[in-house]
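Possible race condition, two jobs.
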Amino acid sequence: MELRHLKYFLAVAEELNFTKASEKLFISQPPLSRQIAELEEELQAKLFIRNNKKVELTEAGKYFEKETKELFQNLERISTKTKKIAENVSGEFRIAYISSIYSSVISDLIQHLKAQFPYVNFKLFEVSTTKQIDALEKGKIEMGIIRSPIHSPKIKSHLWFKDGFSLVYNKNTIQIKSENDILKLKDETFVFFNKDYAPHYHEVLLELCAFYGFSPKIIHEANNINSIVQLVKNGLGISIVPSNIAKNNPDSEIGFIELKKVNLFTNVSIITAKEDESEITRSAVEFLLPQRR
């Protein structure tokens, strides 16, 4: 199937007359009829009902017309955007990231890209891992920063860094000296990520607690790492967060203890569409990859 088959089909579908369609396409009628016949044969579906008086679309033809029109609209949109980005005239580049990634890194990335591509509009979205994968597959974002494994034939993944875990607590309400004292916290209130929002991460936290010999009493849940840390600071519980957060949180009221005994890590990865070879994407990935946390 070639684009010309689709163009010829749309012309006939619009005119519902082979003579008028052939005039519109500047070809004679026999080749047009032949092209439509080839298309029907390839699809193994009759697209038109033809008799001496009129031409009508079949139900299959009506469906094919709708989808083909959408296809051409998407092709036009893609062509226009590709041309604009290539010319560095305008365009939009959408980056999604998880809340547990330190914001200064994202800010540095945008500054780097803006210096290279001053006319491109960069947009940032804080989005969960599962929603990022879905958005990238549907073309709603150009790049994502996620945590946990990914299984998608449409996505290319670049490992950025492996992140460990740390216990986070309020120093004024919790007395703990080292990782060896964690079991003493088994009756404390825990603040976790919502399991529907980040199912893999939620399971890892449960696995961590099991390693230390207890099941956490989860009272509060949140969908944002900063909200979790704030709840801990307010004395509403303790939590386990990525060690990357501990390294970048200077708050004197909050304590962190890295969990070194358990051999559990999460992969923080940069994801892009498998077929995306744009200069902006390449520049973004190359900027981040050397900055292994």
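Job #2 (started ~2 s after job #1):
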Amino acid sequence: MKPKVISWNVRELNEYNKRLQVRNLLRQWKGNIICLQETKLEFITRKIVRSLWRGHHVGWLYLPSKGASGGVLIMFDKRVVDRLEDCVGEFTVAFSFENGFQWAFAGVYGPNIFFVIEVYNPNIDAEIRILWEELARLLSWWELPSCIGGDFNVSRFPSERSSMSHITPTMRGFSDFISKQALMDIPLTGGSYSWSNTREIPS
């Protein structure tokens, strides 16, 4: 069976009713590997995992939030893929899997720089470099066909943001990383943007 991967920024999983909504949608979508970002949970227990995905065949690993920010949870169906190795980094949760062939998946929640005015800032520059270096090390360590999904908090092109008219340093860095690692950026289909908030200048 080919695994179906679902990657979703859920924007918090603190409340049971929110987890129930997420569980109902995951049940409809029938994914085998689920990557949830921005959980805003410092601790994830088996009880929380079971509130999202019922059954005894679920494997899971998480990156805790930093206070009320970030967090990544990956769950997978152990009947579909066998976990070989796993790793939790500063911004990533990653697995190598076996299901007829070996491959790797990394779930990302990038440094939260999306709303920062794009001028040079050494702290922002350092954090985003840590993300690219962390992912590059993972790809180099396992040397397997890999899929990277999640919320990078970075876009590649001005057309991917409704209020942006020029290419920024972080956009160039994202494109450079994709090129150096010989990755393929799967294009967005459907809407022009992945989400829009209620600010005067929506993202």
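Residues 122-142 form the longest helix (21 residues).
Logs attached separately.
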